[in-house]
Amino acid sequence: MSMKKIIILVGVITLISCNNKKTENEKLNLNNKAFIENVETIKPALSNQEQELILSGKVECDPSKVIYYMPIISGLIERTYFSLGDRVQKEQTMLDIRSSELSSLQSELAIAQRNLQSAEAMYKDNLTSERELIEARSTFEKLQADLSLYGENKGGGVFAIQSPITGFVIDKNASAGSTVAEGDTPLFTVADLSTVWIIVNVYAGDLQLVKQGMPVEINALAYPNEVFRGKIDALSQVFDPEEKVLKARIVMNNKDLKFKPEMSVVVKLKNETQQKTLSIPSDALIFDDNKYFVVIETESKNFEIKEIQLQGHYQKTSYIRSGLTENDKVVVKNQLLIYSELKGK
What is the Cα–Cα distance from 235 to 257, expressed in whole angstroms? Predict the structure, then answer.
């Protein structure tokens, strides 16, 4: 026999000898006092089961802080001063409209202004009555007020339309050279985004777990390392006929403008059931052959395996439907070693 073959044979014999020694030691561990004293156990706790529900949501504007500008007269857009997404200030000029109707009103206003100036001069010289002066002033002020409804009077039939609030342009349907008609599609929409709504879809199967006032955690793909907190402010009592869901509303402060309209988010709700349930640390579970097991220490310092049925999980806690009692001592340290040994007997 060659030297190489002898070395290989000795190596195999050594490996087998070590494995046999290891197996014998593991078997001895279950009867070893030092090993038993090192085993840690806990008793199942009786508590309200906590559940985590994950729902989808979408950011929407607060309807009370959205202004749609509808054209109130027909005309031609001469110029626009904004783009979609722009931040605009209250009374900032958004676009210029030229209208023949407004041109006529401008002419009437110019005539009324001249009449007022004439009446004031004649009244000063005692050539007209106070009543006639008041009538002239009233006519001028009424026409001025009427014209102000259309925007800033630039003369020549042109009016500048201004933003009614400070906010962001979230929709634009106006371009230079296009015509508009009274009551037509809104030319632009401005929203104050300092507060937004998050609308959450609640399916019928989850309805019992969602309540008004519940705290929630919100995650967005755009901010993977941030968790936003809010609460369910309102829960609709009518199912959406198309999506077949109830809509829950979360009102969020958005001073940092992190939430954008139409942004998708994930909403997590934590719920506690009123029924007491046995619970153990999830680390104590042993998953084998598509079943869950735990190792129990008996009164005589022996160990046995118990199959259990789970009610659910929450974070690092598992809730037990059946298989355990409050008095069971569940092994939470070295349970895998004990399980392997017991199963191999």
Answer: 25
